[in-house]
Amino acid sequence: MERIFFFCFRSCLKGDSEREYYDILEIDNPNVATVEIIKRQYKKLSLSVHPDKLAQRGIEVTAEHKQKFLKIKEAYDVLSDPKRRKLYDQLGASGLKLMENPTEVDPMVILRNYQKNHKDRTVIVLLIALVFAAILILPILFSLKSDGTLGNDAKWVAIWTPMWVVDLFQLVAATVILFDNSDPPAHDDEEDKAEPEPKIPLVDRLYNFVSTVLFVLIQIFVWIRLDKYVHWSWFVVFIPWFLYEGLQALYNLSTAFLTTVPRPDLEQAAQLLEEGHNGEEEQFMLKIELESRYFEKIMEQQDARKGIYVNALRAWLAVFLALQLDGTVEWNWGLVLLPIWTYLFMQYVYAYQLRAWGASKLDGVDMERIETGEEKDPIKMVNAQQSSQLMASSSFLCFSQAAPLFMAILLVSRLEVSDITTFVIILPIFIAIGCCCCGVFCGICVMSCIDMDEVAKEFGKQEGGPSEGEEGYVPPTQTGVDPEQGRSSGSSAEETSPFQQMEIERKAPAPVAPVVPVAPAQIEVDID
Known about the structure:
Elements lengths: L1 H12 L6 H5 L10 H15 L1 H6 L6 H17 L2 H19 L6 H10 L1 H29 L9 H4 L1 H18 L11 H5 L7 H25 L7 H4 L1 H19 L22 H46 L7 H4 L1 H23 L6 H6 L5 H23 L1 H15 L5 H4 L1 H23 L2 H11 L18 E2 L4 E2 L9 H10 L21
Antiparallel strand pairs: 1-2
C-alpha cells in the first residue's frame, strides 16, 4: 500500500532535491553512506561549527553560525533515522515534512511540487486515464452482451472479468483486516500515547468479511445461472442475496431501533468541565460539541433505519424477480419492479423530511445576526449550520434520484414494448463517468498552467496579508498593545463572534520566533 501511495501522489509530495541534506553533511555518494559514515560526518562538522567550539577558539558566534549548526543537526536527525531517510530519499525535505505533518499541509506547496515534477505528473495523468478506461469497459461489455452484439458464445462470466478483479481486491482486503490483530502503532508523542488509536472490533471485522464473501457469491451464482452452467431455481441462486440483506439489517438493528439517543442537558454543561476551567469560552465550546455530537448520533440512527428499509425492499425485489424468472407468475415487469418504485418514492419522502427538519431548526434563529457575527448563542449558531447541511442533503437526494428513475422506466419499456438498446438505458452511468473524467483532466490542466506567484499574492490578500504598496500587518498578541493604534490588541475580539474569532486564529500564520543573541552554552547537543 505504501508503494501504491507514493506512486500515485509522488508528483504532489516530491519537493526539493533529495541531495540537500547529504550536501550539508558533505557526503558525496548517498548510496554507500551508512549510519556510521553519517554519524562521523556529523561529528566532524559539529566540532567545526558548534557555537561552544567557536567560542572556545575566540570566534564571535553569529546568527549564521547558529543557523548553519541547526541545519547540520536537522540533516543528521533525518539521515540517521532509517524510516525518515527513506522518505527523504523519495520525496525530499519538503515532501518529508508533508508526510510527517499532513494536518499542516500548505496547498501552495503541493501545487508547486506538482508543477515542478513533470515526469511524475505525466505518470499520474496516464494512471488516471487507465482507471477511467477500466471503469468504462465493464458497462460497455455489459451493454454489448445484453444487446446480443457479442453473440451467444460470449459468456457472462468472461464479460464480468473487470469486476472479478475488484472482487479479488475486496476479498484480500477483508481477509487481511479480519486476521489483523496487531496493536495500534506506537507514537513518540506523549499525547498520542495517552489516547491510542482504537482497534477495529472483532464483530465489525467479521461482518465486513462475511458481507464481502456474500457479495461475491451473489455475482458468481447469477452469472453461472445465466450461462447455464447450473439449472437451479432462482430462489436458490438468490440465497446469498437474501443472506446479505439479512446480515446488513441485523448489523444495523441495534443502532436503528434498540438504541436511545438522549438529548444533552445544556444547562448543566458547565458541570462537565474540569474544576478551574469553567469559563465562558469553555462553556461555549462544550455546548457546541454536545449539540454537534447529538446531531451526528441522530443522523447515524436515521441512516441505520433507512438502511434496514432498503434491505427489506431489495429482498422484496429478489422474491419478485425469482417468481418471474422461474415462470411461477407472468406479471408485467412494471409490477415486478414495484420495490424500485417504492424505494424512489421513499427517497423523495425522506428528502422532504430532511428539508422540514432543516426548516424547523431555523425557528427563532436570526440569520442576519449570524451572518454579521452578532449572534452569541452557540445553540442557534449550530442550528443554523445544521439546517444548511440538511437543506443541502435534501436537494442532493432529490436530484440524485433522477438517474435511477430514468433507467428504471427505460428498463421496463425495453422488457415490455420497445427495442431500446442497453446503451441508452445506462446512459446516466456514461454521463456521470464522462463528467468525472472531464472534471479531473480539466483540474489537472488548470493546476499545470496556473501562475503560483499570482495565486499566492491573491491568497495573501484574502487572508488579510499586505497588498502591493502597503506595509506589512503585525499580528497583535493576546496581552500586547498595538503601537500604531494605541489600544489593547485583545479588544478586537469584542467586535467579532466566537466563530469568527476561531476562524481568524486558524487562518493566522504561525508566529515566528525572532532571532535573539544566545550564549553559546545555551545550545546543548551531544556530539560525542
